[in-house]
Amino acid sequence: QETAVNIAHSTNLVDDSFVKYPLGATSFDEMTASLQDVIDRQTGANTKAALVIEGESLQYALAPGNAMLFQQVGCLMNSAICCRVTPLQKAMVVNLFKKLGHTAIAIGDGANDVSMIQEAKVGVGIMGLEGSQATLASDYAIPKFKHLVRLVACHGRHCMVRNAILVQYSFYKNLVLTWTIILYTYNNGFSGQT
């Protein structure tokens, strides 16, 4: 857990101003109480917060009775650090937050990230030493993590603009084609002959 928090600090996912909520529960009821406590403390607070949870505790947070509480806690946080989680748990977390209606992006570099990448709306695979399973399962593949900003901010925006222009051209093409046929039918007196 400490290693994951240190990596989050080094990648600027969290900083010293964040309030960290480590969720370490060993039972379902303990997790329910912990989640409710975080909701009570963080609701209305103006502080940046980060959630830190391990895979053993995550199984209680993703249980049917706690899933909605965990979703509420996740929405109150600025960052979340999930460490020592199984591939199925990664996919379940992505699915839980995808149900909110937002676009979910999953980034992974190994075979253990494949189910999470496939569950997300947008999957990004990072080419690395762990093999090419993540890049083969992803929608986009990048050579290094530092290229993610360019992929999302630059290429994603340009793709959206290009698609919008393509839709406008399609409407224009259909309008021109249809009006040409309508005007020609008036010209030939609706005879059906060309």
TrEMBL record:
Q: Which Gene Ontology molecular-function terms are recorded?
A: ATP binding; ATP hydrolysis activity; ATPase-coupled intramembrane lipid transporter activity; metal ion binding
Q: Return the GO cellular component terms, semicolon-separated.
A: plasma membrane
Which terms are listed as keywords in the entry? Magnesium, Metal-binding
UniProt name for this protein: P-type ATPase C-terminal domain-containing protein
Species name: Eutreptiella gymnastica
| Residues annotated as domain P-type ATPase C-terminal | 136-194
Tell me, what is an example of a GO biological process annotation in this record?
Answer: phospholipid translocation
Location in the cell reads: Membrane
**PANTHER family in the cross-refs:** PHOSPHOLIPID-TRANSPORTING ATPASE, PROBABLE PHOSPHOLIPID-TRANSPORTING ATPASE
Q: Which SUPFAM superfamilies match?
A: HAD-like
Stretch forming the signal peptide: none
Q: How does it sit in the membrane?
A: Multi-pass membrane protein
Q: Which InterPro entries match?
A: HAD-like_sf, HAD_sf, P_typ_ATPase, P_typ_ATPase_c
Keyword field contains Metal-binding = yes
| Chief localization | membrane
Task: Write down the Pfam families for this protein, in alphabetical order.
Answer: Hydrolase_3, PhoLip_ATPase_C
